[in-house]
Specification:
single chain, alpha/beta, Rossmann fold, 6-stranded mixed beta sheet, 6-stranded parallel beta sheet, 36% helix, 19% strand
């Protein structure tokens, strides 16, 4: 891949950024399509996000940027317009820059997670799900699985106010969905999702440990579909523990891979 004065430069912002897989995956697709464009990772601390978004409006050879943790809600508040899905969630993971510098936000995390689950043979219709983490990724995943037909949903987060907000938003859009607060043990779930950064970087990383206590993981039944949004390491300690219980597992990389075609299409790159 050669970068020249005609190359369109998309970005992915986050903090930290080293764990992201989107540049490898999207850039490979750009090469395959012969597109004169590149996706570059940029590590932006929270206090610099507003400045980056302001710069983006004047960045004439940028089609836009992808947003990862922890910036999804902050960036949503800075967009000129949001898709109905992003507006419902109050978060974005992609921002498309218009020719006039206006910024349109959307949220594809949930759609990518559901698509990846279907590729693993999981059918959400009528199933019971536990989602741990209700931030930008977790709320989007909950929204997408609700739309895909999940019948029972339990949301867990240390931020109980955020859980209440997400639950209220989902009840308004999906009135038939049963939303509960107490999971009990995990034997009653067909789907369990870690949508927190816990496990990122492995045991020595910034977020060590497991998103669910060992004792609860021991109650997973074989065949449960277990998902982790963390992309580094590829197979997290949580997924290793689920595999040991006979569960099917879905990595954060699986979710990213399922989104790549949509990212490229929204940026107008292929």
């Amino acid at each position: 891949m050669t970068i020249t004065g005609t190359t369109r430069i998309a970005q992915i912002i986050g903090h930290p950024i080293r764990q992201v897989r989107a540049p490898d995956l999207l850039n490979a697709e750009l090469v395959r399509h012969g597109t004169d464009a590149v996706l570059v990772p940029i590590d932006i601390p929270p206090e610099a996000v507003a400045g980056f978004v302001s710069l983006q409006r004047a960045w004439a050879n940028s089609p836009g940027f992808i947003v990862t943790v922890p910036h999804k809600r902050a960036v949503a508040a800075l967009c000129d317009r949001l898709s109905p899905r992003a507006a419902r969630l109050g978060a974005v993971n992609i921002v498309v820059r218009g020719a006039d510098g206006t910024l349109a936000g959307d949220h594809l995390d949930g759609l990518g997670c559901v698509a990846a689950a279907r590729r693993h043979g999981f059918d959400p219709q009528g199933k019971a799900a536990l989602i741990v983490g209700t931030g930008g990724a977790g709320s989007a995943i909950a929204d997408a699985f609700a739309e895909a037909g999940i019948a029972r949903l339990v949301l867990r987060d240390l931020d109980t106010a955020r859980v209440a907000w997400v639950a209220e938003a989902l009840r308004a859009s999906f009135p038939a969905l049963r939303i509960e607060a107490d999971p009990g043990d995990l034997s009653g779930f067909d789907l369990v999702v870690n949508a927190t950064p816990v496990g990122m970087g492995g045991p020595g990383g910034k977020y060590p440990g497991l998103p669910i206590p060992d004792g609860a993981i021991a109650t997973l039944r074989p065949g449960t579909h277990v998902v982790d949004v963390v992309t580094d390491p590829r197979v997290t300690p949580f997924l290793e523990a689920a595999k040991a219980r006979g569960c099917t597992v879905q990595t954060g990389g699986d979710m990213v891979a399922a989104q790549i075609a949509e990212f490229g299409a929204q940026f107008g790159l292929f």
